[in-house]
Design goal:
With about 220 residues, the protein is an alpha/beta fold. Helices cover about 50% and strands about 10% of the residues. It is built from ten helices and five strands. Strands 2-1-3-4-5 form a five-stranded parallel sheet, sandwiched between helices. α3 packs across α10 and α7 packs parallel to α9. About 35% of the residues are buried.
């Protein structure tokens, strides 16, 4: 009889210590997990991955680089080849879904290649940024430089768009998206404009500190 009572007592004690036994302290698998930052890259062929396999595109390579740093992101590639800043503005609402935390804006290269009036490009980029800000979405603006074929006056007006908007609208700026890659035939495709996979990796390496700081500030605001 005493042995039976002892066994019942041991079973009761073991049950009380079993995880999920109703002690009110159990944690589900999702508790404590870091919620990924939902990010969209709104751009043209340079970020879309023109001429490259999907895994070599800028958004995918950037996500891997961020994850290697312990920064979890849920990345959406909203790059459309041939798109202008105005085109990006037209598709903004459906390209950037509700619930997005941050957007990298990479637009304007096609505007410069086509000689579009810098005032038009400036207005489109300004609209994109202000609309995203109104939705409480953080913005990182990537700059672009005009090719020399339209003359120095055009280049001066176009190149000033990005730093001017970053300052006036209060968004961080990465001055030149193709920094370290533009003009180097070894890391550009045959057209001389679009990076190879190696070129994309250089773009990612160069922009990574800026993106880290951008997301760090965003995480501080979310906490």
């Amino acid at each position: 009889m005493h042995i039976l009572v002892l066994l019942m007592g041991l079973m009761t004690a073991a049950s009380a210590q079993t995880p999920g036994s109703g002690d009110g302290k159990e944690k589900g698998p999702a508790q404590g997990a870091v919620k990924p930052i939902k990010m969209v890259v709104l751009g043209d062929s340079l970020s879309a991955g023109y001429g490259l396999p999907g895994p070599a595109s800028f958004p995918v390579r950037l996500q891997k680089a961020l994850e290697a740093k312990g920064i979890m992101v849920e990345m959406t590639n909203a790059g459309v080849s041939g798109d202008t800043a105005s085109g990006g503005r037209e598709r903004l609402d459906w390209s950037v879904a509700d619930g997005t935390d941050a957007v990298i804006v990479e637009l304007g290269a096609n505007d410069a290649l086509r000689g579009i009036d810098p005032a038009v490009t400036r207005a489109a980029l300004s609209d994109i940024i202000t609309k995203l800000q109104a939705r409480k979405i953080a913005v990182l603006l990537c700059g672009m430089l005009a090719p020399p074929n339209y003359g120095s006056d055009y280049a001066a007006k176009f190149n000033a768009i990005y730093p001017d908007l970053a300052k006036s609208l209060g968004v961080p700026l990465y001055p030149f998206f193709l920094d370290g890659v533009a003009g180097n035939p070894k890391i550009n495709q045959a057209d001389g404009m679009h990076p190879t996979a190696e070129g994309v990796d250089i773009v990612v390496k160069n922009i990574l500190p800026t993106v880290e700081a951008f997301l760090g500030a965003l995480s501080g605001q979310r906490s």
